[in-house]
Specification:
Elements lengths: L4 H11 L5 H13 L6 H13 L3 H14 L5 H15 L3 H14 L6 H14 L3 H13 L6 H11 L1
Helix pairs in contact: 1-2, 2-3, 3-4, 3-5, 4-5, 5-6, 5-7, 6-7, 7-8, 8-9
Length: about 160
Amino acid sequence: MVESWESRVAAVWAAAESSPDESVLVAIDALVAERGADDAAALFEAASVRDYLGRETDAEPLYRAAIAAGLDAERHPRAVIQLASTLRNLGRATESVDLLGDLLAEHETDEWTAPAAAFLALALASDGRERDAASVALYALGGTLPVYSSAVRRYALELR
């Protein structure tokens, strides 16, 4: 049985922490080369591996190209979050805040709400807006609390 491209990509990522960085890069780049130069998923994986290796400057244009190429519903939010994180790491927190604010507005109550809120809180803190960061983080956390959910969310909004 021939493994799918997706499963081979997943296997590389599953072994990444115990593999030398260069091996992870080579393996992902080999898989990316199997796809067309404008393949959104391949561009995303190429960006992700560079981001993983701390090569944010190389990752940024690849994330942007992946998003422009039209990622699927599974990868699109991940790409926006990862691009925003990359921008924050590159010292462009305001740009990161804008991207994550838009993503959070699109994903107010789904599986992407908490990840978007977490990275938005980080970006806000990096942008010198710690009070707003606490508000976003507490508001998102409030949705997971078995008790006091509405109180925490109300107080979180008051922080802003």
